[in-house]
Amino acid sequence: MRDLFDVSGKVALVTGGSRGIGEMIAHGFVASGVKTYISARKADACNATAERLSGVGQCISIPADLSTLGGISKLVGKIKAMESKLDILVNNAGATWGAAIEDFPESAWDKVMDINVKGPFFLTQALLAMLEASATDADPARIINVGSVDGLNVNRLPTFCYGPSKAAVHHLTRTLATHLAERKITVNAIAPGPFRSKMMAATLERHGEQIRKGVPLGRIGEPEDMAGAAIYLASRASTYVTGVVIPVDGGIVGCAGTL
C-alpha cells in the first residue's frame, strides 16, 4: 500500500506542457520521478519550462504544433528516437476562442476542434505501439485526456466551440477506453474547473470573485490539485479505473443543483 501512488521510473509525454494545466501536471510528474517530455507550439516557452522543471527532475522539451498531422508526426518521430516505450500520455494541448455568435468565424471553430479533439485522437493513434510496449496487466499504460467542466456544464461565455470540443474529448475518452482495454491501456479524463492559467487569466481578472463564490469549496484550484489527480491516474492506485471523467473543480459539477 505504501507504494500505491509511486510513479517514479515511468516515462510520460505531456502536450501543452509549457504552461497552465499542462505545466502543473508535468511539474507533478517530474517531482515524482517521472521522466517527462513536454510539448508546446512555442519553442521558447517549451524550452524555458523544461529548463525550469529540470531543476527538480528529468524534463525534456519537444516543441511541436499538434493541430496538424505533420506536427504530430514530427513529435512522434522525436519521441521514438529517444524512447522504446511510453508509460503515460497526457493529451492536454488545447485552445479556445471567444466572439459574439454573429461574428464567430469558421476558422476559429476549426482551430479549436483540430487542437482539442482531432489532435488527441491522432497522437494517441501514432503512439499506440509505444504505449502497448509498456503495458502489463498489473500496470497498464495510461492515457489521460484533459477535458473541462465546460464539457459537462454550459457556461455563459461566448466560447461556442470550446464546451462542445471538451464534451467530445470526454466521449472520445470513453470510446478509446472501450477499444484499448484489451491492449492493457487505460483511458481517463480530467475535467478541470477554474485554475490560474493563461487561458483563464482574463476571465479570473474580470470575474474572479464571482467565480470563487460559485465554487462549493470556495477557492480557485491550485497546481497541487491538478498534479494529484494526474498522479493518481498514472499510478497503481488507478489500475482498475478506465473510461471515467473526473471533475477537478472544487465541487462545481458534483454539487450542482444541491440546496
How would you explain this protein's 3D organization?
With 259 residues, this protein is an alpha/beta fold. The protein has 7 helices and 7 strands. It has a single domain (11-248), classed as 3-Layer(aba) Sandwich (Rossmann fold). It has a 7-stranded parallel β-sheet, sandwiched between helices. The chain is globular and about 50 Å long.
- Average pLDDT works out at 94
Q: Mind telling me the CATH superfamily name? A: NAD(P)-binding Rossmann-like Domain
Structural class: alpha/beta
* Number of domain units: 1
- Sheet with most strands: 7 strands, parallel
Strand order of the largest sheet: 3-2-1-4-5-6-7
The first-to-last residue Cα distance is 38 Å
Structural features:
7 helices; alpha/beta; Rossmann fold; 259 residues
Secondary structure blueprint with pairings:
Layout: E1 11-15, H1 20-31, E2 35-39, H2 43-53, E3 59-61, H3 69-82, E4 88-91, H4 106-134, E5 141-146, H5 162-180, E6 185-192, H6 198-213, H7 223-234, E7 245-248
Parallel strand pairs: 1-2, 1-4, 2-3, 4-5, 5-6, 6-7
Helix pairs in contact: 1-7, 3-4, 4-5
Summarize the structure in short.
The chain is of the alpha/beta class. Helix content is 44%, strand content 14%.
